[in-house]
Amino acid sequence: MIAMDGTPRAVILLSGGLDSATALRMAHNQGYELYALSFRYGQRHSHELTCAAQLAAQLPDVTHRILDLDLTVFGGSALTADIPVPKDGVGDGIPVTYVPARNTVFLSLSLSWAEALGAHDIFVGVNAVDYSGYPDCRPQYIEAFETLANLATRDGVEGRRFRIHAPLIHLTKGQIIAQGLALGVDYGLTTSCYDPDEQGRGCGLCDACRLRLAGFAEAGAADPARYVPNASPGA
Amino acid sequence: MIAMDGTPRAVILLSGGLDSATALRMAHNQGYELYALSFRYGQRHSHELTCAAQLAAQLPDVTHRILDLDLTVFGGSALTADIPVPKDGVGDGIPVTYVPARNTVFLSLSLSWAEALGAHDIFVGVNAVDYSGYPDCRPQYIEAFETLANLATRDGVEGRRFRIHAPLIHLTKGQIIAQGLALGVDYGLTTSCYDPDEQGRGCGLCDACRLRLAGFAEAGAADPARYVPNASPGA
Fold first, then answer.
1. CB pairs A-B closer than 8 Å
2. I want to staple B202 with a disulfide (CB 3.0 to 4.6 A). Which of A59, A90, B90, B193 is the partner?
3. pLDDT tens digits for B111-137?
4. Which chain B residues contact residue A154 at CB under 8 A?
5. CA dihedral angle for residue B156, residue A164, residue A38, residue B112, rounded to 10 degrees
6. Beta strands A163-165 and A121-123: pairing type?
7. Residue extents of the structural domains in chain A
């Protein structure tokens, strides 16, 4: 559906992290009227939801919703259950911070909202280069979800096809940050840490902090995020 | 994962309707330790959740969870928004009772729970014969979801494949009911109506009531569900 003034609508998953903040700005620059979706899913800290709300509020034509969805009922992840977040460096396999089927759950809900809105474009800031190895961040996963979306829905079946946009998927973290800075993303409003302190300061040691700090180093830029004192691994 | 006593686990979507009640009994007869999932998603009536809980409680080895997920935030359906439920007969296209991407949302959450439980079998009582024409009840949709599930998850990627079981998908409503009766399903504990009254009695006129009543007629059995007086279309 095109809005009354001719602006196409899109739904975007907005976590409050660096990647989705960049994807938000990219989608906005493409002229979409945006509907940003965040989840209160039982994550360890609500700081990322504060970040998401601030990022959405910075732009005109962005409607932001936070949906309550208690994934702690299921457990199975260091992000939603009482399992320690690893801080000894980015490893090879899929880490314990993996939340079972999280992106499938979130994309499914974004699809539901999109169809109800008459939107056919869904943006997601997944990245398959500098990432934690989650299976639901890979290109073949995104393609499979797009296929599913067009079989699952009235609009898909009737030829109004959904497209899943993952504009960061092949970029390095440094490239994401460089592009975001060029577009005016305020990375001081983003959070990446899996285990921030009460003030929202990063631990500097979890996979997400390490990937973020390495990305800023690659981009030759200073990370405006706050970290707990003496915690940085020195990127 | 096999439970400590060797019993395999499975997750099943349990709506409290006729179809999922039958699938529950089928899965139970196959020897699974079952985890039944229902949703308080903003449906017009909570009677179906009462039915789901009673159906689960009838069987040993069934753990039942009701997850809160407010799809009314998105709207777009006669089942979740202020749109009248049609009562003039089952038509051709996809009706307004279609909830955008509902089965994708529900299957995604069942996948999340399954992976957290170490279960790799997911049962869903969708049917593509005597149904309301919803796109997310068709075989090609179920196949696409299974493909997605195995790309989306740690277990799928590591070779512990998920299977989506839709044992009713090719059956007529009459065949479903006949098989369910043979297995001992108490259809008096199921509800089908899209718009029941305060006592949970069916309207007899919506698509779901019409399909149910025609199914009992086909099976040559009496429908133990209660209907509001003088509302039956006579199947």
1. 151
2. B193
3. 999 999 999 999 999 998 877 788 999
4. 94, 98, 100, 135
5. -20
6. parallel
7. 9-219
